[in-house]
Write a structure and sequence with these properties.
single chain; alpha+beta; Heat Shock Protein 90; 2 domains; five-stranded mixed beta sheet; 9 helices; 58% helix; elongated
Length: 371
């Protein structure tokens, strides 16, 4: 019912636009009627109908074509202020004007329909390609940890095979590791769904960024065991008003991405700092910023593909198998949900540098203790 009302309102406005456009052009042409030939005015009205055909639906355009023909006959073809035409040439001109206006309107409308159909077809093809890419990625990323879990459980349940305690602990560890990997992929899918639906509403509260970084790195220690992590965090880093859960996921995805796509032994550097810029537009205000960088000394990103790093389901041509291509796009979505920005660039001495910048309120930890 609501859509029908909106459609009627839109249709009424299009008819009004068509009517007013012909009226305005006719009144302007009427001022210079004695100075120019009426055939030129006919061309102007024909151009008007062509423009209306580009922006309006077919019926309002047909109305414009009819009104233009009537205006040309009534106001500009002698005798004025009558629909009577004295000579055959003028009658033929008026008929041809109306026919050309109608043909132009119909052809333009058909062209717009074809463009719309092509756009729908391309969108469907793109959606299917994205869907197939997602299925290919998920079929591997979800099947592998599930297979590991089922295999380990099956071995633990076999009564005819005696397993040492060390073997049992190893199988339990494999189950835990596979479960965490499975949970990571499911979390990414759920988070992408939340981003797509626009339901993410950040719950801003005072957060200790240093605590978030250390907690995340402890949680991901197994994935980063073959890498070195270096922390460069300001000792007097204040509390920032951010969403704790979103920040955890942002740091987790960035560090996990570095650990999965860099060689063993690479150094991952996590830096957090507080900065203040003067707001020259307001003269007195200060812009308080929380800046977090996650960098590594690996091989960096391909220069011709780096702009696509945050695209959904995009995986680099030379990247190793595995991964859904969701981690970085989720990072970008969560950063922007908190009115922040993220940039990616290759370091001068190889490696990649992710820079997160948040313009947020801050409070010194000492102030919190005093309260």
């Amino acid at each position: 019912m609501k859509m029908t009302i909106l459609y009627k309102k839109n249709a009424a406005s299009q008819y009004m636009i068509s009517f007013v456009s012909v009226l305005v052009v006719s009144l302007v042409s009427l001022i210079v009627r004695d100075a120019i030939d009426y055939k030129i005015i006919g061309y102007v009205l024909l151009v008007l109908v062509s423009l209306l055909a580009i922006f309006l639906e077919i019926k309002p355009v047909l109305l414009g074509a009819l009104l233009s023909a009537l205006a040309l006959d009534y106001l500009f073809i002698k005798p004025y202020h009558t629909l009577h035409i004295d000579n055959t040439e003028d009658a033929l001109l008026l008929i041809m004007f109306f026919i050309i206006a109608l043909i132009n309107a119909v052809l333009t409308n058909n062209f717009k329909r074809m463009q719309h159909a092509i756009h729908i077809k391309e969108t469907r093809a793109s959606t299917m390609k994205l869907y197939n890419t997602m299925l290919d990625s998920l079929s591997h990323e979800l099947r592998t940890p599930i297979a590991a879990i089922l295999g380990s459980i099956d071995m633990l349940q076999q009564k005819d095979i005696h397993l040492s305690e060390d073997k049992q602990q190893k199988l339990l560890f494999e189950i835990e590791k596979a479960s965490m990997k499975l949970n990571y992929q499911v979390e990414n899918l759920l988070n992408m769904s939340r981003l797509e639906s626009g339901v993410i509403q950040p719950k801003l509260d005072w957060c200790d960024v240093k605590e978030i970084i250390y907690n995340v790195c402890n949680r991901i220690s197994e994935e980063t065991k073959d890498h070195k992590i270096t922390y460069k965090i300001d000792e007097n880093l204040p509390l920032f008003k951010l969403d704790y859960g979103l920040m955890e996921q942002i740091i987790y995805n960035l560090v996990y991405n570095c650990s999965q796509h860099t060689p063993k032994g690479v150094n991952i550097v996590i830096q957090a700092q507080y900065d203040v810029d003067a707001d020259y537009d307001h003269h007195v205000d200060l812009i308080k910023k929380c800046i977090i960088t996650v960098s590594d000394d690996g091989h960096g990103f391909p220069s011709d593909e780096i702009d696509r790093a945050f695209d959904k389901f995009y995986r680099f041509k030379n990247s190793k198998t595995g991964g859904t291509g969701l981690g970085l796009s989720i990072v970008k979505g969560f950063v922007e949900a908190q009115n922040g920005s993220i940039t990616l660039e290759n370091a001068e001495n190889d490696g990649a540098v992710f820079t997160l910048e948040f313009h947020v309120d801050c409070m010194a930890i000492n102030s919190l203790k005093n309260e």
